Amino acid sequence: MADAFGAAAAAAGLLEQAIKMFTRIREAKQRQADLPAIINEYMGVVKTSKDIVEFVRREPSLVSHNVMNSTQGIKDAALELTNHLSTMHDHLDSGTIRGFAHQLFSGSDDQRQLKAIVDKLTRQKMDLTVNIGLANVGLVKGYGNAISVNTIAVEELSVRVKALLGEDGGLRIAKVIEGRPKNENGTIPLTSEDIAKLANVSGDTLKYTEAEVPGSTRKIRRIENNIALKGALQVNAPVGQDIWAHMDVIVVENNIADVDAAQYCYPISSSDFLASLKIMKSSK
Q1: How far apart are alpha carbons 11 and 67 in whole angstroms?
Q2: Which of 6, 18, 46, 100 could form a disulfide with 91 if both were Cys (CB 3.0 to 4.6 A apart)?
Q3: Residue 129 and residue 169: Cα distance in Å, rounded?
Q4: DSSP classification of residue 190
Q5: First-last CA distance in the chain
Q6: CA angle, residues 200, 206, 208, in degrees to nearest 5
Q7: 183: alpha, beta or left? (left if phi > 0; alpha if psi -120 to 50)
Q8: Under DSSP, is residue 218 helix (H, G, I), strand (E, B) or coil?
Q9: What is the pLDDT of residues 173-206, one digit of tens each?
Q10: Model confidence, pTM
C-alpha cells in the first residue's frame, strides 16, 4: 500500500511540473498567434490525470493490485512527459518562442513524440479510472466464509468517485448491492454469485489456471467453465493492462453467456470495457 501512495505522490508531483511547463507555453500563445489550442487539450489530460492520482492518494480503501499498476503507469508516463517537455523548453529559455511553436506543432519528431506520450498518459488515466470503479471496498468478513458489505462506506465513497469521474463512474460494488435490504448494522450480505461476480470483474481473483505446458518451458493460461447469468457482465480477463502478455498459450473453453449477458475471457482495453458498460446500461 505504501508503494501505491508513493507512486501516486510522485505522479502528482510530475504532473504538476508538466502543468507549469504547459502554462508557460500557453502564456507564450498570447504573444504568438500560431500556437494552437492543442496546448489546452494536452493540459486537460494532465490536469485530470493529476486529480485522479491525488484522489487515489487520499482514498486508501481504493488501493488494489490493478490500481497500483495503473498509478505506476501514470507515474511512468508523467516522467516521460516532463523529461520531453524539459528538453523542448530550451527553445523558450533561449527566447525563440516562434521556433519552439514551429517545432512543436509542424509535424516534427518532437511533436509526434509529445503526442505519443500524451496518448500514453490518456490510456493510463483511463485504465486507472476503470480500476477505481472495479475496486471492491467495504467488505466485511463474518462467520465462516460469509462476506457482507458495509453500505455506508461504499455509498459514501461511490458518491466521491462519481463527483470525480462523473455519473457513469461510480463503484461497481455499489451497483451490485443497489436496492437490497440492509441488516440492522447497515450491512448487506453477499451471495456466492455476488462474490464470484465481483472477483471476476475486479480481476482480484480470476477463475483460471496457470501451468507449464508438458514437455516444454511454455506457460499456458486456461479460462474455462465460467457462466455469465442473464443480464450479467462477467470479466474473466485483465482490463486495460494486458498482464497475460507473457503467456505462450491462452485456452478459452466452455464459457457460457446467458441472454443479455456480456462475458470477456480475453484481455480487453479500458475503452472497450467502458463501451460495454454503456451499452448494457442503455439496453436496460
Answers
A1: 13
A2: 100
A3: 8
A4: P
A5: 38
A6: 130
A7: beta
A8: coil
A9: 888 888 888 888 888 888 877 776 676 554 443 3
A10: 0.64
* Of 236, 11, 240, nearest in space to 127 by CA: 240
- Residue in the block written with cell 490525470: 49
Residue among 148, 143, 147, 157 at smallest CA distance from 181: 148
Using the 8-state DSSP alphabet, how is residue 243 labeled?
Answer: T
Which class for 271: exposed (0-12), middle (13-18), buried (19 or more C-beta within 10 A)? Answer: middle
Cα–Cα–Cα angle for 136, 140, 144, nearest 5°?
Answer: 120
CA 71, 221, 191, 278 dihedral sign is positive
The torsion angles phi and psi of 227, rounded to 5 degrees, stand at -125, 125
pLDDT tens figures, 222-244: 777 677 777 777 787 778 777 77
* Residue found under cell 507449464: 212
Residue keyed to cell 489530460: 45
Query: Looking at the predicted structure, is the pLDDT value of residue 97 above 60?
Result: no
For 80, other C-beta atoms within 10 Å of its C-beta total 16
**Sequence letter at residue 216:** S
Residue 175: what residue type? Answer: K
